[in-house]
Amino acid sequence: MTSSAPGKFESSLSAKGIYRTLPRSVWILGFVSMFMDISSELVHSLLPIFMATVLGVSMVTIGIVEGIAEAAAAITKVFSGTISDYFRKRKVLVMLGYGLGALTKPIFPLATTIWWVFGARFVDRIGKGIRGAPRDALIADIVPPQVRGAAYGLRQSLDSFGAFLGPLFAVLFMILLVNDIKAVLWIAVLPAFISVMLIFAVREPDTSELAGGNKSRLTFADVKRLPIRYWLIVSLGAVFTLARFSEAFLILRAQDVGLVIGYVPAVLIVMNIVYSVFAYPAGIAADRFSARTLLVFGLGMLIIADAILAMAASPWVAFLGTAFWGLHMAFTQGLLSKLVADTSPAELRGTAFGIFNLISGAALLLASVMAGLLWSVFGASATFIAGASFATLAAMGLLLYHPNARSAACRTNTSN
Predict the structure, then answer these.
(1) What does residue 40 show for φ and ψ, rounded to 5 degrees?
(2) Span 323-342, pLDDT tens digits
(3) Are 137 and 163 in contact (CB under 8 A)?
(4) Does the predicted TM-score (pTM) go above 0.85?
(5) Domain 22-199+224-409 classification at class level
(6) Residue 205 in contact with residue 347, Cβ under 8 Å?
(7) Cα distance between residue 382 and residue 388, in whole Å
(8) Element (H, E) at 313
(9) How confident is the model at residue 200 (pLDDT cuts 50, 70, 90)?
(10) Where are the domains of the chain?
(11) Mean pLDDT within 351-361
């Protein structure tokens, strides 16, 4: 990105600190994510139980619904990212995506069959797909390279704080409303619409600032211009996604070891409070230290989480495993976003995020379906043992990766 912004930031970093120099629009996008996640996680923390108990569907069906919904989001991100590159307008797509997410929220409490849930979940994830790549590219447009890790970490931290508040509200209202799941699901509507309203305050950079003002037509053939470093990050992201699966299985595991239905959302509360606390410090670390070291650490936390969840015999042990799961997310998700931004040209940044999320979404579909099958055939422990095994292989691959290629694919402090 070429603009006067980087120089201004460079001169103020030491005086004010990274925390205070992040632009207002990054903070607003963080709060947009926070309010939408309050809504979405309130719904999602109850949805697996709603599907399994109220609608009576199987674990395999839950895995398929979750996997297809997330894959739909990933596929949509490719097109929305490319469109945002083509027209050099990202904010309108961000608003459209969050708007679709808000419109689906009333459908969940109205659902009487799995098809209602599937349809609402599908459209909700389409909305997520529309907003995801343009939003992530917009953040990279707004901030200079040397604080991208902090910017993504801040947005992810606020996002995770909302994901902590959503399940917390679910627990509180389940108690107040005597486990009336449908009534609690209605409460998710308000924060979703607040999220959409906040987007009006986001300032999008002038199109002339992107790619030096070059407004030539973009085509899918331009994907060939993405460097090999970028494709290595895409492959790495897919491996990470295969090593985990939908968080719906964390909720189901806690219920499986005895957590009563009214307190099931506490699983996501634990995960997201850890995620929220560590995401921003992890983002700052991503601007300063080796990406490979941080990624291996994140995989180590996932291995520990899976091992604990596989052996869990009580809700408290399940909560401990969930906390390690949140730590893994904090040290990997913002970092991967930074690596995508660092390795893609400014004029193809939306497309780059879209492709990254498409491939990761396909991996998530496969991981979620396999998790459901393993659970149904071999039991809950097998699901988490398989996740730990794959994460171990991924960590070994990173450790054995040729050190001469480290700067090409596994460092965040490369020059831009």
Answers:
(1) -65, -45
(2) 999 999 999 888 888 889 88
(3) no
(4) no
(5) mainly alpha
(6) no
(7) 10
(8) none
(9) very high
(10) 22-199+224-409
(11) 84
Tell me the β-bridge partners of 290.
411
Measured from the Cβ of residue 56, the count of other Cβ atoms closer than 10 Å reads 9
The span from the first CA to the last CA of the chain, in angstroms, equals 9
Taking the CA atoms of 326, 137, 341 and 281 in sequence, report the sign of the dihedral they define.
negative
Q: Could you count the other beta carbons within 10 Å of the beta carbon of residue 152?
A: 30
From CA 311, how far away is CA 155, in angstroms rounded? 33
- Give me the half-sphere count of Cα atoms (radius 13 Å) on the Cβ side of residue 331: 19
Kindly report the number of other CB atoms within 10 A of residue 206's CB atom: 11
Sign of CA dihedral 47, 48, 52, 57: positive
Write down the pLDDT at residue 2: 36
Instruction: Report the distance separating Cα 223 and Cα 134, nearest Å.
Output: 16
C-alpha–C-alpha distance, residues 25 and 341, integer Å = 18
What is the per-residue pLDDT across 86-118, written as a single tens digit (0 to 9) for each? 777 889 999 999 999 999 999 988 877 778 888
- Contact by Cβ (8 Å): 280, 30: no
Over the range 14-42, which residues count as b (16 or more CB within 10 Å of their CB) and which as e? eeeebeebbbebbbbbbbbbbbbbbbbbb
Q: Which two tokens stand for residue 237?
A: 């992201």
Do 259 and 315 form a contact (C-beta atoms < 8 A)?
A: yes
Distance CA 368, CA 382 (A): 13
More confident residue, 359 or 59: 359
The pair of three-digit structure tokens given for residue 63, joined into one six-digit string: 């895995």
Strand (E) or helix (H) holding 278: helix 266-286
The encoded tokens of residue 329 equal 């997310």
Structure tokens at 29: 């996008």
Give the contacts of 276 (CB within 8 A, at least 6 positions apart): 157, 158, 160, 161, 163, 164
Distance CA 136, CA 222 (A): 20
Question: Alpha-carbon distance 387 to 404, whole Å?
Answer: 29
3-state secondary structure of 51: helix
8 A C-beta contact, residue 236 and residue 295? yes
* Portion of the chain with pLDDT greater than 90, in percent: 19
Least confident interval from 102-106, 309-313, 364-368, 369-373 = 364-368
Can you give the three-state secondary structure of 48-96, one letter per residue? HHHHHHHCCCCHHHHHHHHHHHHHHHHHHHHHHHHHHHHHCCCHHHHHH
Number of H helices, E strands in the chain: 18, 0
